[in-house]
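hey m, so remember when u said the tokens were messed up on ur end? i reran from scratch. heres the input so u can diff it against urs
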Amino acid sequence: MSATRKCPQCGTELGPETPQGHCPRCLLAVGLGSEVTEPGGTQPIVAPKPPPAPAELAKHFPNLEILELLGQGGMGVVYKARQPRLDRLVALKVLSAEASRDPAFAERFSREARALARLNHPNIVAVYDFGEADGLYYLVMEFVDGLNMRQIEQAGKLSPREALRLVPAICDALQYAHDHGIVHRDIKPGNILVDPEGRVKIADFGLAKLLGRVPHGRWLTASQTIMGTPNYMAPERIERPQEVDHRADIYSLGVVLYEMLTGELPIGRFAPPSQKVQVDVRLDEVVLRALEKERERRYQQASQVKTDVETIASAPAQATRLVAAAVTPQTQAWKAARRRVKGPAIGLLVTGIFNWALMPLYVVIGLHLARNVGGINPSGMSVSFPIAMLLVAATSSFIIFAALKMKALEGWRMAVAGSVLAIIVSPGNLIGLPLGIWSLVVLSRREVRDAFAHKPT
């Protein structure tokens, strides 16, 4: 009679179908690399092991026939399975075992999974069921018998034309999820699936948020990194992870679109798509706007990306202009500077208009002070006071004109002078003080000064 075998990690009794020496739960933890030490700790990192085989996992899911392992990643392991009663193929996603160590995870998992299950959209992988089985948290999802975008790219089957056909569907899915308060947080080619009929399906909505939180409220994995894929992360995912909103998905979409068009990632100082491949130069503006570091400068809605892409796809560009009219780095820098000065230029414009709007009140207050405080006979101000008003009117007009020139990146010195006047001229300096300082700070930037001096032809 053979001795009882136990899991060396947790002591669970093992059956004859567990040849790898660990119970399925511990295999998931070790296989996903979650057994690591905190910084400064002495416990060694456990070497990754393969995830549980379908036979090993079957006893935990008696209502499913687990057919094969489809893949694994930082968020869990995915199996192809079948629901016998419905005769339906499904995808079983078993989440990282590390998550169950958080006492608050069960409640959060239930809440987030219910929200994901309510997403009902043709371009989103549906969640059929969720739960916990012997410490394993899982999702039963729609099975998509197709390829993900990464596999299609590697097979060389993704042309720019096909990319433009797929992007609107991705935008539709994102906009639907965002409208329902769900942010994906890990948009990348591996999570964008295409079925045999060419339909797009986005998988793993919300899992980065669900699995990224560990005890003490930190949005980190056990390896002390933010859950997600670094090359596709918006800057705020790293700099301000607690403030992430739907615009982080738009940045990731920009990375995916650039990669779909060029086959490369937009890392460092990258050239716009039209300089890498023969595509419509109008796509450069779409991609660069989606990839803005400051989220306020990006597209604010995925539907806006869809509109621009569909407009470009439906109006073919002239082939002779595709390469010749490509956006140069100088043009790209000029456009970036123009976007940067737009805010302070509008601020100066508001200041000048504010001065004009308060002009009658300024006259009344001036006459009142002259008569009741200064003891001056108003008749004696028949010359000096109108001149003062004309000066205020002239400076207000100058501020407005300088703001318009600044917005067009014309007349750097005039823009500086308008900013100074906005700071010192009453009564507009009530708002002109902060706006003028903001304008001066932006105008002092080297790339902005260069853009004023070198306007592209």
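this time it looks ok to me. The chain has three domains: 6-142, 147-327, 333-453. if urs says something different then somethings off w ur setup not the seq
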